[in-house]
Fold these 3 entries.
Entry 1:
Amino acid sequence: MDSTSRQIRFTLNGRPVSARVESHLDLVDLLRRFDLFGARESCGQGLCGCCTVLVDGVAVSGCLTLAQLVDGKSVTTVESLDESGELSHVQQAFIDEGAFQCGFCTPGFVMMAHELLKQNPDPNETEIRDYLAGNLCRCAAYPEIIRAVRSAADRMRPA
């Protein structure tokens, strides 16, 4: 490694990890080193939401986040959302509502929906649309995505 690399330590999906990263390496490419492929680079400009991951509980564009900036932080990817080997309510709702076509954007939408429901467990359609406005679906599965988020909210509501 050259002099522009450094060792970082962070928590990835609940487990401590470390990596040597170059100064220009983005978070999506770092996640590939850990065999995590859910966050996908599409636009490379932070405009589409396909690369959404959580850093210390806040949604970020992995394509714009330098890997070295997660040093000492917690990173959560879509791969960790399953609960005891079962899909999360959000993941299951996306399947049940057919909230995808090609599936390329789905991990980003799932991560954003997960965060929305943590902040607002009973969002209305306008709130869902506003929260997900930074995510793009080229297949135009938006009605199904909105239904999936509502369905997940219903599933998460205490009986």
Entry 2:
Amino acid sequence: MLLIDGTLLPAMPEPIEPAAARPTRPSEARLVRPVRTQIEWAPRELDAALPPDHQARAIWALLEQLDLSAFYADIRAVADRPGRPASDPKVLLALWLFATKEGIGIARHLARLCEDHDAYRWILGGVPIDYHLLAEFRVVHEQALDDLFTTILAAMMNAGLVTLDRVAQDGMKVRASAGAASFRGASSLEACLTEAKEQVERLKAQREHSEPGVSAREQAARERHARERQARVEGAIAQLPAAKAAKERQERTLAKPKRAKVTEPRVSTTDPTARVMHMPDGGFRPAFNAQFATDVESQVIVGVGVTTRGSD
């Protein structure tokens, strides 16, 4: 009891301890969770994303000093004619040069890097490309690319970066796309050629009376495939003399026990220039022998060649 101003008050109750709160379950918690599918607009300058001393800038600066007129000669989109603008060949050159330095030689891989990697995006600078354009550019301008690499090598020699005092050469077997079953002898190749010609003529005759449900595009694709097969078989027949000469050379140079195992010359109808070679794993498969000549001091590749001989 308490007495306040002469008034008797009841005693204060004892304080009640609050019950312990139970742990919060993860499903009950209110959280700000990540949403990685939302679109963000972030201002970003490509030129600021690349260091000033990056090798991609050096490659671009070098190309700006070279005569690249051979790569522009076939462009039909000009100022006084209609048509969509072409992608700058200088950009395609810089992409392939930088990719080659990085050990990349596949157009699809290079196209993906142009979307994800800052160095390739800097070289691209928004120019539209795809892997078809990259692959076609390398095939169409093969001679111009060889001349360009020769010019670059000469510039490096003039600057003392490459001396060519000592050059090392080595080879590497590269698996061909041809299968073992595609190799045929002379009589089989002649039969294949006859069959391929008949197929081409048959498809030409069907052009006026095409099969139901076959579009003009599909019909054209069939004709193109038949013509390509005929061209491959003709190329295989043209390679027979070289294959025969190689077999004759084996009969002269091999030891007597191995001479009896030399078979008749055969050529692939899939890849006529491929030859069966002894691979590093001990097996025998259709392949090519890529030869590299390298400056010993700078480790710069100064020469590349492809041969059908198994030995270096």
Entry 3:
Amino acid sequence: MRNLGIAAVSAALLLALTYLLDPFRDYQLATAAAYLCAAAGLTVLIGVNGQLSLGHGALMAFGAYPVALVQNELADRGVSAQWTLAVSVLAGVAAATALGAVVGVAAARLHGPYLAGLTLVVAVAVPSLATLFGGVLHGDQGLSVYLLPPPAALGPDFPFERWQAWLALAAAVLTMLLLANLMRSRFGRTLRAVRDDEVAARLAGIPVARTRVLAFVVSAACAGLSGAMFAILAQSVSPSAFALTLSLNLLLAVVVGGLGSLAGAVWGSLLLVLLPWLVDTFTADLTLSPDLRQRLAGNLPLAIFGLLLVVVMIAAPGGVQGLLKGVLKHVPQVLAPAVRGRRRSAGGLDDRLQR
């Protein structure tokens, strides 16, 4: 109930925020929410269960392509209604969950670099399927996504970016609510037990292999939902949008935000959106050649993110969320002397008044 209350308050605040922001900022907020779905699922997989994945970009692709295929197919058949978007998103989540189950079964007995290598192969191989099945997926060109305008009840002048933000934020809030409850449930304690000591967990009667597979399935479903949201935001899907760089960015976001913390996934997702925008704003004022500007736009955010990761690991191993917790923990200690001084002054004043 506490998580449900937090989710309801957060949804109300975010809904109000979308009315205060301009369309571009709404689109940035929607992008951060789409990233959050995948980052939160990756937090459960890595931070709570201890499995490393470098292939979540491929899982997002499996969530995005069904959205394009189903939406376009229904539109070609003359089916045009808002409910078709929910069907397409569910199809994307189901496809990503199926792939996550296959990868999870294969990775159930792998650890460390072997698991990372397997997921890396998935991240590299899955985008090439668009070329292999070019007749359906249109290769590197990708697919456009048929989307209806916002519902007529919202008004004729309702910004489409705000409607996209509503969809992405609803997905993010739902993901955070379900994962927060899962982490506090018996299954969440099982995930942490397997992460801390597999031998002890096995001796306690916990099915280690099944737990690892289920963790991968949960994380894959979140990645599929994230990919579906990106298909809605970009209104197109292509292999280049789900390259290995996306998987690395998600991993960096989870670690920098705070490994094992859903709140840390929020900070990491915001960094994924704000960092490239800040770099573009900074380089826009510099006199650079078009070629150099293009190279910086593609590589400088990743380089800064990597440098930030090194700094965070040295200065604050708990990430941004751990740093905030440490600061908030020391606030009462800093304020305590002032509070005691005020109480002493008030007590002395009372004594003088009584005399």
